[in-house]
Amino acid sequence: MFRLSTVFVLALLIFASVSAIASGAAMNQSALHAAAATDDVSTIEKLLAEGVEIDARDGSGATALLVATHDDNIAAATALIEAGANVNAKDNIEDSPYLYAGARGHLEILRMTLSHGADLKSVNRYGGTALIPASERGHVETVRTLIEAGVDVDHVNKLGWTALLEAIILGDGGERHQQIVGLLVKAGANVNLADGDGVTPLRNARSRGFREIEKLLLAAGAS
């Protein structure tokens, strides 16, 4: 009886030790995410030197790099990327540092992801490349950067929209979206590739009264 009780106590102690280690690791991982959220490079470097997993996930599936990208924390993102963080690691809603930086126009972080292995063919939960939401949201320099990097300008997302269509359908027709349409056209975007309902970019532009965009499309051979 004594021996069985002793074994049971020892098992409990071992379990408690393992749990404590796991809890400590989780705390360190949480600390890494917190440091990324506050752009605290010194803490990031300290935690990584202590062996914290650089691509550990939080409750949303985000890595510390994605947390830094959310807030456009350039210093933290730089430290993590240079230490080897995965720029393509997706969270639970299929955002990655690369995709999020592109969609939100976080240009400096985007450029770092591109120089550290960004997957240009990766897509978000809508099936779109980084170029599509960047075009929609009017991030001119981001669109230029992604085009120069080689992202497919005619990729079609789950909604049946290309970057050109999304710039027109969800854009405001103003100067930024005019520039983006011009960039996409110059990059060889198919100006006659219709949406899922068979409506072309030109018809979409006309129905919204986007006269300047209409001119750009006509000059590129749209019909």
UniProtKB/TrEMBL annotation:
Is the keyword Protein transport in the record? Answer: no
A Pfam family reported for this protein in Swiss-Prot or TrEMBL: Ank_2
Sorted alphabetically, which keywords does the UniProt record give?
Answer: ANK repeat, Repeat, Signal
Signal sequence residues = 1-22
Protein transport as a keyword?
Answer: no
Q: List the residue ranges forming a coiled coil, or say none.
A: none
Entries under PROSITE patterns matching the protein: ANK_REP_REGION, ANK_REPEAT
InterPro entries, alphabetized: Ankyrin_rpt, Ankyrin_rpt-contain_sf
What is this protein's name? Uncharacterized protein
Task: Write down the species.
Answer: Rhizobium loti
